[in-house]
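Work Package 3 (structural annotation) set out to generate three-dimensional models for the target panel prioritized at the project kickoff. During this period the team completed the workflow that converts sequence records into discrete structure tokens, so that structures can be stored uniformly alongside our sequence database. As a representative example, we reproduce one entry of 136 residues exactly as it appears in the project archive.
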Amino acid sequence: MRTGKIKFLKDVLTLFDFKSVSDGYNEYILLASCEIENVCACVEDKTAFEALNNHIHLLSRIKKRQRGEIYELSEKLGKLLISVLRSQFPDKHFVVFVTVDSEVTVRFHQKWSDEPWYYITDDENAYQSKVFCFDC
């Protein structure tokens, strides 16, 4: 198997391995591959903190003719991730974004009260991207 295919499989599997870190007040759910082990001070923007640390870039250099199939697979991947998060953290609520443009990017964060979601998906044409959004 080529190195690129192995890296792709590892990246996809990384999406389903989580850890919890705390700032003393809040519990953040991060990808286990994230290097952050603890948070010393209260995080001002909890949504951005999680969203920036919980993202993976998959499948670069996507051709336009591949997009239809990539959209279908990306939607399934997003639904699977939100389902896994829901089952592993039943007391928390999450948002998962899968963005498809020249690459596929998967990102998630908790729904924090009084904070907007990381992406506003109404204006996806501005980015020439397709953004799938899943929440629980």
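The beta strands are 18-22, 27-31, 55-58, 94-100, 104-110, 130-135.
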